[in-house]
Every structure is written in structure tokens, then in C-alpha cells.
Write a structure and sequence with these properties.
The structure is a single chain. By secondary structure, this protein is mostly helical. The chain is built from 13 helices and five strands. Strand 1, helix 1 and strand 2 form a beta-alpha-beta unit. The longest helix is centred in the last third of the chain and has 30 residues. The mean pLDDT is about 95. It binds adenosine-5'-triphosphate (ATP) and magnesium ion. Adenosine-5'-triphosphate binds next to helix 1. This is Tryptophan--tRNA ligase. GO terms for molecular function: ligase activity. It comes from Kribbella karoonensis. Homodimer.
Amino acid sequence: MLSGIQPTADSFHFGNYLGALRQWVALQEDHEAFYCVVDLHAITVEYDPKALRERTRRSAAQLLAAGIDPERSTLFVQSQVPEHAQLAWVMSCITGMGEASRMTQFKDKTAKGGADRATVGLFTYPILQAADILVYQADRVPVGEDQRQHVELTRDLAQRFNHRFGKTFRVPEAYIVKETAKIFDLQDPSSKMSKSGSSPAGIIDLLDEPKASAKKIRSAVTDSGRDVIFDEENKPGVANLLTIYSALTGRKISELEDEYAGRGYGDFKKDLADVVVEFVTPFREKTLTYLDDKAQLDAILAAGAERARAVTEPTLAKVYDRLGFVPGP
Ligand code: ATP
Ligand code: MG
């Protein structure tokens, strides 16, 4: 199993946690798991090098705080494992231009600035992502709904390579938990909560001051009614809050609807704010503790990269052989 997360912000948010990270933690129990902070993906958009280094470490610290066990799972930084980029080149040579042009994330991410101002790296990002997955021979890829199309592309590329050059890759499947596959922006419940796309008021960051998180929940957009009902079409704001509430407490949505029947949004939001504060307070403390010892953190990541390379080097060697390259030194 393989999955990755971008160091594109100072903090992960509840979409990342509920859509992906929570599954990462659960699946490491009975899978051989590879989890990476995908810094090569983060440079596809404008960024500051100093901030990237800091955010990469913060990302790793948050993964540890979330419960990724570096003994059990291989936790590493993508740029420290060169085979990702090497295989991405190979994959780009079997990807059609039309096929790459159909990726909706590129369209979403360039909707504001226009495709002409985007980088080629942002365009080819899904190909690098395919390489991230295939280089580990992963069967399962735990992600949020927004990544389904990229995993589909990965499957197509794996099958195409196998067909053309002989069986080389396992064909992976996305692992998406329906209930929490898409957490929405608190201020704009028609778009997904996103590190790079949401306004600060629309995101609940895992590392926000607990008080700030509570305030964001209380000022989340709902509607002019007062019924706490799960109706994604007509009440997307309330439905989103119910999803988060249910996921964090393990309580059924129907049970929550009953509990808040006739009580209005005020009580509901206040209680959810308490639930969120209870979650983020220890999470934040743990993350900051991991960040206190950068040498230790870097050592965990270096050990992870070494373990990762034990898998990626043989995969790449096999691929190069299949491609007809002359063996090197
Ligand atoms: P960016 O805006 O920089 O793309 P992001 O918030 O989309 O950041 P990623 O690092 O791209 O986060 O994605 C990490 C994981 O979190 C992926 O598996 C992705 O599907 C999942 N994810 C991201 N946003 C959400 C969301 N709103 N709901 C559920 N899952 C999400
Ligand atoms: Mg994203």
C-alpha cells in the first residue's frame, strides 16, 4: 500500500485527516505500508524553498502525531527516493497528451490563473503520482475522492506497460471511504476543503489554535433553516458538519439528527466545536513535540527512505531492463 500527502501548507486539515490519514493509520495494522510526504509534487505550484523545508518536516511530524508508526510503516520524503522521478519519466512516455489533458484536478487548479500560467510540472503531476504508486507495486491506495481519477490513470498506465513490455506492475486500486471521501470548505460547501484552494475561514487545520478551530465551526456557513438534517443537496453546509461530527465521534448521523431535532444550529455547532477542540488539542501538542527534535525527525525520514529504496531500486531495474536499456555499472 502506498499513499502520499503534499507539504503545501503549514498544517493538514480535516479533509486530509478524515479522507486519507485516518485510513493510513488503520491500514498499517495489516498492510505493508509506504507513506510519503510528496515534496516533488509541492514544487509544481509557486512556493518558497525555506517554507517547503519547514513544511515537509511539519508534515512528517503530523503523520507521526496522527499515529503512523515508523517501525511498522515506511515513512519518508519523496525527493529522497530518486526512483519516483525516474519512473515518472518512463510513465510520461506511455501517457497520451489527450489522456493527460482530461485530468480534472489540473483544470480545477488552473481555473483561476489560466492554464497558460501553469507549469508543465502541474500538468504532468498525475504521471509522477502514478510512478509513486507503481514503483512500490502497491495494491491499495488510500485517498480522498478527488484522487480517484489519478488512480484510474495509474491503473491504465500499469496495464498499458504490462501489455507492451510484459507483466511488470501490479494494478492498484483506490481505497476510498465513502462517508468521508470529500470534506467540504466550511465557507463554500460546494468545493472541497483544500490546503491551497480554501480561504482560512473555510479550513479547519489540525494545527490551528483550538480556540480558532472552535470559532471556525461556529461561523461555518449553514442555511436560513434550523433543522439539523443530512441533506447534501439542499443543506450542504449542515451535511458537511454532520459528516465531520459523525466521523470524529463514531456516532451515526441518524443518531445525531435525533439528538438535535428541534434544537437549532447553535447547540449543534457548539457541541461540534467541543468535539473538534478535543481532537486538535492533543494532536497539536504531539506534533510540536516531534518538531522539537529535528535531528530525530530527519533520522526517521532517512531510515524510511533507505527502506523505500530497497523496494524501488529493484522495480526500476526491472523496468529499465524491460524497456531495452543497456545495463549500467
Ligand atoms: P492541495 O490543495 O495542495 O492539493 P490538499 O488539501 O488537496 O492540498 P493533498 O496533499 O493534495 O491535500 O492530498 C492529500 C490527501 O488528502 C489525498 O488523499 C486527498 O485525496 C485527501 N484530501 C484532500 N482534500 C480532501 C477533502 N476535502 N476531503 C477528503 N479528502 C481530501
Ligand atoms: Mg490536493
